[in-house]
From TrEMBL:
It comes from Fontibacillus solani. This is 3-methyladenine DNA glycosylase AlkD. Pfam families: DNA_alkylation. SUPFAM superfamilies: ARM repeat (SSF48371). The lineage of its organism: Bacteria, Bacillati, Bacillota, Bacilli, Bacillales.
Amino acid sequence: MDLEMVMKELEALGKERTKKIYLSNGAHEPLFGVATGAMKPIFRKIKRNQPLAEQLYATGNYDAMYFAGVIADPTVMTEADFERWIDGAYFYMLSDYVVAVTLAETDIAQEVSDKWIASDIELKMSAGWSCYCWLLGNRPDSEFSEGKIAEMLELVKNTIHDAPERTKYSMNNFIYTVGVSYLPLHDKAVEIAKEVGPVEVGRGSAKSKFLNASPNIQKAVDKEQLGFKRKYVRC
């Protein structure tokens, strides 16, 4: 399948209701409103195809950009490729659920994420923290430096309340993910979550929302989910 054929199939799958949901979450035109699950039959036809993924991502169409992440081949993507992708990720569903997810399947994931976290650019920071969440929730604990993850927890504790709004979500999720999926620092994550407490995030004209990793970690404990690792990062 070429770019034109894929775009036609995506357009045919678009739903106005789904489109409105994406728009309300930060997407903008052009987009069709394709549910992610509806993309699976197209993926089965294409499998991994990095050249086509690059063409789709360059369209600026949200659905095409998301599908680009589905068919991307992370093994051939370079740091420069990921920098280009994150620069094109104009809202969190792209930065955290396309770019960060794809990056999490590479050997350069931590290196690139560290740079993004230190960037002071909201969606880069968010993608960096999110990538660590995908990594911790998928890879063996032995692949991570306990000292480094502990330092990152301290960084979250000291900066989350003053972080950019979207970054707060991924930092809060980082505390939760360490608490549930990285057993060496479960106790420290529980302690940090309590010290951080509720984190207020603004939602434009809507009423503020409060994030709190502590009760969610406890729910995972109650459900005996400690040590949870997902089999795949991408579906």
